[in-house]
Amino acid sequence: MEIKLQQDILAANDKIAADLRKIFEDKGIFVINLMASPGAGKTSFILRIIEILKDELNIAVIEGDIASKVDAEKVREHGVAAIQINTGGACHLDANMIRGALDMLDLDLLDIIIIENVGNLVCPVEFDLGENVRVVISSIPEGDDKPLKYPRIFVESEVLILNKIDLLDCSDFNLGEFKSIISGLNPSVNFFEVSCKLVEGVDVWVSWLQKQIYEAQKTKSGGV
Amino acid sequence: MHEMAITESILSIVVEEANKRDAKRVKKIKLEIGELTNIVGDCVQFYFELMSKDTIASGAEVEIIEVPLTAKCSLCGKVKRVENLDFLCECGAAMKTIAGKELAILTIEIEEAGEV
């Protein structure tokens, strides 16, 4: 006997993600799902954001790594709450892990949660975490062809950060080629060139972020 | 890369459905996998064979239907099969994915309790 199921395999994750999205919306928390390969500069990018915004907004960071607490400790040194999730081998964060981490945060106090996903350009994009915005970081040393090799994460992210732009002159990275690939893959992506090391360009992205947070709050208050 | 986690979900859904219907065993599973997902069908088949051992779904055939990547223009509404990952419409606007992200179990075929 054949049984029709039409069952989404990730439905369990998506259901939890939808619950999380509702919680974030109710509490007025803007959530960023930050994805990139290992070493692209996710943690440095988060630290630069914290430096600009921490006097103005309450930020918490959820760190996803296969092992270690290195990243959470770096964030805490900047005076911001950080929860470390160790996935124990899993190559991505899922909504259930985020739900667990929220128990350790005081959601009433928060304006922004930045989720640093596991360093990986493949798996994280399949799992909805209830975020407002998905941000992918690419960096100069990785080469200009990464969007062609790992397309989905570049197709689906609303923001693309090109980090380590200060290394452009000493590499073979072809910025024109990179931009041309991106304009085909994701023509409406919000693209920012930054150097976390020299603290360049991060402010432009933060202005964009503040605008999004403002819009989200306006939509919320308008909807009530 | 995360085919193991995906296969685990598939197996748990399949076993639950089969048990709900008092099945003797699961004969076949038909999956739908979109072109844009990063899921390799061969890996799912391989993991399923390993993970389903000693379950009601052991030995089930896994058939995979691939769904081509299709996008729709956000401005003029044109729909096209996306080739070479080009999401730019002829009219110059950005296109949004409408198919190719599927990851679903379409059907399962079971052998019922009384069946020989």
Describe the structure.
The complex is a heterodimer of chains A (224) and B (116). Chain A has a single domain, classed as P-loop containing nucleotide triphosphate hydrolases (Rossmann fold, 3-Layer(aba) Sandwich), CATH 3.40.50.300. Chain A is built from eight helices and eight strands. Chain A has helices at 11-27, 42-53, 70-76, 95-102, 146-149, 151-156, 175-185, 202-223; strands at residues 2-8, 30-36, 59-65, 81-86, 112-116, 133-139, 159-163, 190-193. In chain A, strands 4-3-5-2-6-7-8 form a seven-stranded parallel sheet, sandwiched between helices. In chain A, helix 1 runs parallel beside helix 4. The model of chain B has no long low-confidence stretch (mean pLDDT 93). Chain B has a domain at 3-68 and 99-112: hypothetical protein PF0899 fold. In chain B, the strands form two sheets. A three-stranded mixed sheet of chain B has the order 2-1-6. The A-B interface holds A 1-10, 12, 90-92, 94, 120, 122-123, 125-126, 148, 150-152, 155-156, 183-188 and B 1-2, 5-6, 9-10, 13, 17, 21, 31, 36-39, 74, 84-88, 93-95, 97, 103-112.
Quick overview:
The complex is a heterodimer of chains A (224) and B (116). With 224 residues, chain A is an alpha/beta fold. Chain A has one domain: Rossmann fold, CATH 3.40.50.
